Amino acid sequence: LGLLEEDCRARNDYARLRDLLMGAAAVTALSPQTRQQRLRKAASICETKLADLDGTLAAVRALVALDPKDADARRELARLLEAGNRWDELAQLWHTTALGTTDLGEKALIYRRLTRLHREQRNDTVEAIQALRCLREVRPDDAGVRNELCAALLAAGAFLEAVPLLRQRADEHAPGPERARSLLVLATVLEEHLGDDEGAFEVAARVL
Q1: Residue 8 and residue 37: Cα distance in Å, rounded?
Q2: Residues 6 or more apart whose Cβ sits within 8 Å of residue 129
Q3: Any long-range contacts for 114-122 (C-beta under 8 Å, 24+ apart)?
Q4: Cα separation of 139 and 129, whole Å?
Q5: 35 vs 182: CA distance, rounded Å
Q6: CA atoms within a 13 Å half-sphere pointing along the CA-CB vector of 89
Q7: CA atoms lying within 13 Å on the CB side of residue 5
Q8: CB of 183 within 8 A of CB of 204?
Q9: How far are the Cα atoms of 1, 179, 198 from residue 192, in angstroms, in the given order?
Q10: CB–CB of 153/162 below 8 Å?
Q11: In tens digits, what is the pLDDT along the chain, a chain of 208 residues?
Q12: To 5 degrees, how large is the angle CA 105–CA 107–CA 110?
């Protein structure tokens, strides 16, 4: 392979070199380290010499498949997917990465990225809310996360799930304008969307 690689480089035949490296990397009898080395070479050639995003992605996907715990390969795959606007695959990658991450700070960061990705690139409100639910599990005491999830649930019409969050938000405020506003929102949801007139009256009475 070394001589063939030299010949391809001398001829600037990088497409053939890519195919040779990808074919050699698929030989299961070789050590994982050798296969990884050839896949990295193939990815580099595809990106820097051929401007071939699909080829680069194929090589990096193979790297991740060879060693799912390779954090560098996963980061590289995420970078390429983002560059190519491959939002569905990027969402799946981040989802599986979050599941395998034990560091809570890193997990929270991934779910934050997922929320933004689903909301802004995929226009998927359901998945954005699910990512926020996961983020809240990681950050249960973060009022900002709770409020963002509550707002998303209200916008999606998931009023029953939003009610406990609205109660928490109201209860954390000292008596004053902020608490009154939170209670009025809660009362409105109970009355207008859940048909709970008695519950709405009890909440509204707390405003007085």
Answers
A1: 18
A2: 149, 152, 153, 156, 158
A3: 117/87, 117/90, 117/91, 118/91, 121/85, 121/87, 122/87, 122/88, 122/91
A4: 15
A5: 59
A6: 14
A7: 11
A8: yes
A9: 72, 20, 12
A10: yes
A11: 789 989 999 999 999 999 999 999 999 999 999 999 999 999 999 999 999 999 999 999 999 999 999 999 999 999 999 999 999 999 999 999 999 999 999 999 999 999 999 999 999 999 999 999 999 999 999 999 999 999 999 999 999 999 999 999 999 999 999 999 999 999 999 999 999 999 999 999 998 7
A12: 110
Q: What is the end-to-end Cα distance of the chain in Å, rounded?
A: 82
Q: What is the pTM of this model?
A: 0.89
Q: Give, as one character, the DSSP assignment of residue 85.
A: T
CB 118, CB 152: distance < 8 Å: no
Amino acid at 122: R
Helices marked H in the chain — which ranges?
2-10, 14-25, 32-48, 53-66, 71-83, 87-99, 104-116, 125-138, 143-156, 159-171, 177-188, 197-205
For residue 175 the two structure tokens come to 């008596």
As a whole number of angstroms, the distance between CA 52 and CA 146 comes to 43
Q: Which two tokens stand for residue 105?
A: 């700070």
Q: Which residues contact 165 (CB under 8 A, 6 or more apart)?
A: 146, 147, 149, 150, 153
